[in-house]
Structure formats: C-alpha cells, structure tokens
Amino acid sequence: MPTPVASPLRMDREEIGIDTALQRSIGEFGRGQQIFYCLAQFAWVSAALQTLVMVFTGLDPVVQRWFSCSEGPHREACEAVLNSTKSDPSEDFCKLPVDAYTWTRRGDSIVSEWNLVCADHWKQQAVNSGFFGGFLVGAGLFGVLSDKLGRKRALLVSLLVGGVSGVLGGLSPSYWAYFFWRFLCGVGVAGIGMVAYVLGCEYVGPTWRGFLGVAAQYFFAIGATILPAVAFFVPNWRTLSFITGGCSILYILVLPSLPESPRWLLISGRKGDATATLAAIASYNGTHLPDVPLADIVTASGSASGMSGVLFHRTLRNRLLVQLLAWFSVSSMYYGISLMVADLPGSVYANNAILAVVELPAYFVASMLVERIGRRWTIAPSYVIAGTCLILSAGTKGPVSLWLAFMAKCCAAAAFAIIILFAAELFPTVVRNVCIGASSQAARIGGILTPVIIIVAHAMHFPLFAFLVMGLLSLVAGIMLFTQPETLGSVLPETIQDVACPLSPGSSAPWRNIDAADSNCFAQFYHRGRGFLRMKSGPLEDQI
C-alpha cells in the first residue's frame, strides 16, 4: 500500500513566519516586547547626548560674555563690547587687540580653549559638519555590519566607537584632534541609533510597528532634555565629553539583557536560537509558542527597477525631488535651531531644555493627526508653520524671536516623525528602498551643510540669517508637499506601473498593511535618519 503524501496545502500549514507566530500565540507587544523594546531604545538617550553635546561644548564666549577686560588703553573699548546690548558683539570684539581681554571660563568651551574667534570663527561650526559627515559614513557602515554580525554585536561596536571617541575627544590636545574624534563619534552614533531602532522593532508584531516608529523619538527627546541640566552643572567641555561618551560605554552593560533579533537569527540559519528567543518573549508575555515550527526565510528575488526607473518616470521623479527637498529641509531645521539657540535671548541651558520638551507633545499630536486628517495635511502645514516661524524669528528680537523658534522646533519635530512614513507610502515597493535611501542621504547632507549656513550668517554679523535660509527652505518644501497625493487609507503601489493608477482606498491605517521594510520599523529609521535606510521589497521575513 503506497505511503500517503501530504498535499502542498498541508505542507504550507506546517510552518509559519515570525509575524504570524506573534499574532497567533506569542503576542505582538506583550510584557516581554515592552521590556526589550524600551531597553533597546534607551540607546537613543546616549545618542542624543553625544549628538547635541556640540551645542554646549562649542558655546561662543563672546556671545556668552565669558571674558573680562584687561587694564590698559583698550579697557574702555573692551567694556563697551562687554556691556553691549547686541546679541552677538563679535564684530566689535574682533577690533580689540588680543591683550585687551582675558577669557573667564576658558575651559567651558572649545572656542575659548583654542581661541576660535574672529579669523578662526568658522572652526566653531566646522567641527559640527565633521560630526554629521561621520554620521553619513556610519549610517551606511553599520547598516551592513548589522546584517553581517547581528544586531547586538553591531550595536556593541557602535557603542564602543561612539563612546570611546567621545571620551578621547575630551582628551584632545588640539582642535584638529578634536575634529577627528568628533567625526569618528558621528560614525558610532549613527550606528547606535539605527541598530537600536531596528533591534527594538524586530521584537514586535506588525500591528505595533507604526506606533512604535514614532514612539522611539521620545527616547531621543529624553536625552535632549537631560543634557542641558548636565551641562549647566558640569560646564567644562572636557568633562562633559567624558560624561556623554561614558554614557554610551555604560549602556554596553544593558546588552546582555537583550536577546538577539529573532528575525536576524532566522535569516542567518539559526532557527533554534530564533525559536529560543521567541520562547523567552512568550514566557515574559505569559503565552506560548505556536504548535508549528518557524518557516525558513527566503529572500525575495523580484526585480527592482532601481534609481533609473525612478528618474525616467515623471511622477516618481517629481515625488523624489519633493522628498529630497523635504528631508534636507527638516534635517537642517531640526539641528540648526539647536545650534543657533545660543544666539537667541535667554539662558542657553533653559532654552535648550525647552526645545527638547516641546518635542514630546509634537510627537503625540503628530501621531494622532496623521491617522485622522492624513499624512499630507499633517506634514505640509508643519513645514509651512515651521518655516514661517523661522522667517519671523529672523526679523524680530527679544522673547518673541525666542518663542517663534520654539514653535518652529515643535513643528520640525512633528515633521521629522512623519516624513519617513509619508515617503514610504508614496513610492512603489520595487523602488521604495532606493528612494528612501536617497532621501536619507539628503537629510544627512542637510545636517552637514547647516553649520556652513551658520558660519556664513555669523560672517555677515547677522546670525539669524541662518533662520531666514532654513525658514525659506521649509516654506518651499511645505508648499511642494501639498502637491503630493494623500496616502491615508490607500493600498500602496507594488510596481512602477501601479503609480499610474490613483491611490485606491484601503485600510484606515495604511501602515498596518506595509511590509516590515515599508513600515516605520524599516522605513522610518532615518531619522534623524538618523541614517541610511536598508529596505528590500518582499514579505516581512525577507526584510531582516
């Protein structure tokens, strides 16, 4: 009697993917995932500290009035500069001979440490461009390493690179040594944010990825809120560098508590380890593993059109150009406002704390509006309002200018939280990776060029000219975003041919239907892209 052969349908039922296992039995965001997700995202706190420490280590002692006047024939002229009502008296200060003044807080800034004023003023912001240049390199490097080494080991390497270079930066004997260590720090910080983000997302089910994509930004805001208080009580720039770099090194102690990504383990052929990780999550959740084994991940082999397919398609080309401008603009705004806050009235420490705090409601409101009034009608007004506030801030003085900058930062944070989701829904699956990657590069270039804009503004003796440039860019980007189609409630295009059809009605929450690479888990990391986006078309398990 012949042995019965299982039907193909029966065979298909005998193995399931990770997402199906999470949805059916383990739980998509139970207690286990909540713990592991939060532990992973706390790496963003250290990333924020090391990114924004530049605001305090590079404070201009002339603007802060950290100098005293020496006895001699130039004392009266020096005191006139010291007591000037100008927010930035650098033009008058640079007319003084070097023996007319003495730095009173020499160790509190690299500017006073190495006398980066007047002819060397450009070096203040050049080091920040170096950091973002390192960020550009690190985003691509650690994207590859996280696929080759695993998420945890890549995170370990990035923490060591970022943390050690941050500490060594505090030991720098010269400006150019510091520049090198800040560049290397940017390389590491890019990896910290990106790998931690992906690792946290890979623990959870698809229903929660969109929400958690925005929620991850809260951890960066927490770090940004803590930093001004630390800098206020520990103003010495070298000590501050030790503290912020040390936080990344200390975070390494958290890594043993984090399991490796079950998705990476599965695609690496370690099905037993992947199952063990899911069993640990199920144990925390009080649930159980499914009765059937996990299916092997087979990478999708569909053809992708690449950038050439985008450039020769009028609609996609126009969408990409708008996205490039939007990403460049929002990155420039977000970091530029923080770098420029020392030129605004009030305490630089209090102002930076407020800038960080306003991000929290921005993320909450954005996450609500984006599912109610749509992507376009949330993000485009955010750009327009932010740009308008920056332009008005450049033309006003006193508290009004300050509060306009706060409002602009709030809107910039909201835009940053949405732009990646919106972009991911605008492009078809076959070119989504390349389009988001190009947009991410534009954001990084925006970060690199923003300090250059600030250098030019200070050379003009009109620091808030930088706000004018950023505001105009944001205003134009916002207007252009109004021309983009609304994607809320639409089924996303899969091929370039699908773009010719109007976006069709679908779920009220489209991100729930996006593959892992297309959802916020993989499509939303830039932020503050914070890096390269490494996405592929295909089912969820094919993306990891």
TrEMBL record:
Keyword Aminoacyl-tRNA synthetase attributed: no
One cellular-component annotation, GO: membrane
Pfam families attached to this UniProt entry: Sugar_tr
Major facilitator superfamily (MFS) profile domain span: 46-489
TM ranges: 35-56, 126-145, 154-172, 178-199, 211-234, 240-258, 320-342, 348-370, 377-396, 402-422, 434-456, 462-482
Assigned keywords, A-Z: Membrane, Transmembrane, Transmembrane helix
InterPro entries per record: MFS_dom, MFS_sugar_transport-like, MFS_trans_sf, Sugar_transporter_CS
Annotated protein name in UniProt: MFS transporter, OCT family, solute carrier family 22 (Organic cation transporter), member 3
Membrane-topology annotation of the record: Multi-pass membrane protein
GO molecular function ontology, one term from the record: transmembrane transporter activity
Origin superkingdom: Eukaryota
Subcellular location: Membrane
Signal peptide boundaries: none
